Amino acid sequence: MRMVDIIIDKRNGKELSKQEIDFFIEGYTKGTIPDYQASALLMAIYFNGMTQKETAWLTQAMVDSGEQIDLSAISGHKVDKHSTGGVGDKITFITGPLVASVGVPVAKMSGRGLGHTGGTIDKLDSIQGFNSSLTKNVFTDNVNKFKLAVAGQTGNLAPADKKLYALRDVTGTIDSIPLIAGSIMSKKLASGADSIVLDVKTGSGAFMKTIEKSEALARSMVDIGNALGRQTIAVISDMNQPLGYEIGNANEIKEAIAVLNGKHIPDLRRLALELAAHMTVLAEVYPTYENAYLELEKNLDNGKAFHAFRTFVEAQGGNTDRIDDVTQLPSAPHHIEVKAEETGYVSDVDAELIGVAAMYLGAGRATKEDEISHGVGITLQKKYGDKVDRGDVVAILHSNTDKATDSLEKVKAAYRYSTSKPDKRAFIHKVMK
């Protein structure tokens, strides 16, 4: 088998065989296929796409390229949740404990962030003492005992994907549905869960800016999961403005704790319950989505979900005093008000611009080497549809300096206003199975 023949076949729009895809992934991972040939194939895929079968084979080959997590020592039906990323996305800290509170095991591998704000592990690092570097035995024991553990992602999950992503990044082939779907699903499948619920974001702060592209990505990932033996559901949710009101690592932990204690922050509560309901139905705890939603809602209001979160943090070495009194979590010394420049209604809070502003403050990383500042971030005071008068505070920057000009200008640009109240926008756009 020759790599050049595989490139020509895909260039001409032919469906590749499983053997050809396995040959490519194995050869590129081992270094026997050079970057220039891999780049040529990626560009051919970018222009000609891949069939459902090809995409599933590609994903499986990337799974097989490295370590696969064995969760068989964990009792019960393991359900994982994955978000395609957004601004202010602290949903894991609500859905995980919520699902654990009804006895469903959540064994989650997460990473650090590169971009707008920190990743799941960066946010948990806001809690003094929290340890995400768990041995396999401790990780397994914690899930069996407490139904929830979150550990840093192993470096050897789907190494083929890591190599291919770096190549896609410098060859203009990032924006390809089968390549994106394969990349995400290879890591999820290698993580060992029995079923997967995907939160696919759409809008200004999402990777996929349009509903059409988000649906195409969701469909591809669901098909991959189901084809490879994992029951998979995708929920398409709005990311035209940040989730909740807090952006930044410790700030997002504080807001998640507020929701776990029963505070009604509409979009966070709605999405957390939506995802958790699907997760618990897949685990066969509840017979229907409607039943699951109603029962889980009770656990947000009666303290069981918060108890599950507190227990999980304590089990991983976190200082629970900081959970019980969130004022002890990291905070920034300076608080800069952003004021409305018009009277009217908020017609847009551009999530991407808010995310970039948070990164400038130090809440995220522009490069892998950048250090996270856990206390900085942004608090939104006004969101889409809210009435404002000129001079009203629409957001507050939490900064390590008393001047944060770049962030201030980004937040100002993120807010747009209209003279009439804008139409209500859908938040959950679609559920795909």
How would you state the average pLDDT, rounded?
95
Using only C-alpha atoms, the radius of gyration works out to: 22 Å
Q: Considering the protein shown, what is the CATH homologous superfamily of the largest domain?
A: Nucleoside phosphorylase/phosphoribosyltransferase catalytic domain
Strand content range = 15-25%
N- and C-termini, Cα separation: 37 Å
Strand order of the largest sheet: 1-4-5-13
CATH topology title of the largest domain? Pyrimidine Nucleoside Phosphorylase, Chain A, domain 2
Proportion of residues in helical segments: 40-55%
The total count of strands amounts to 13
Assigned CATH architecture of the largest domain: 3-Layer(aba) Sandwich
How many distinct helices?
Answer: 17
Unreliable stretches: none
Output the structural class: alpha/beta
Largest sheet: 4 strands, mixed
Whole-number count of domains: 3
The CATH class of the largest domain, by name, is Alpha Beta
Give me the strand/helix succession: HHHHEHEHHEHHEHEEHHHHHEEHEEEHEE
* Shape label: globular
Structure, briefly:
InterPro entries: Glycosyl_Trfase_fam3, Glycosyl_Trfase_fam3_N_dom, Glycosyl_Trfase_fam3_N_dom_sf, Nuc_phospho_transferase, PYNP-like_C_sf, PYNP_C, Pyrmidine_PPas_bac/euk, Pyrmidine_PPase_CS. The protein is about 45% helix and about 15% strand.
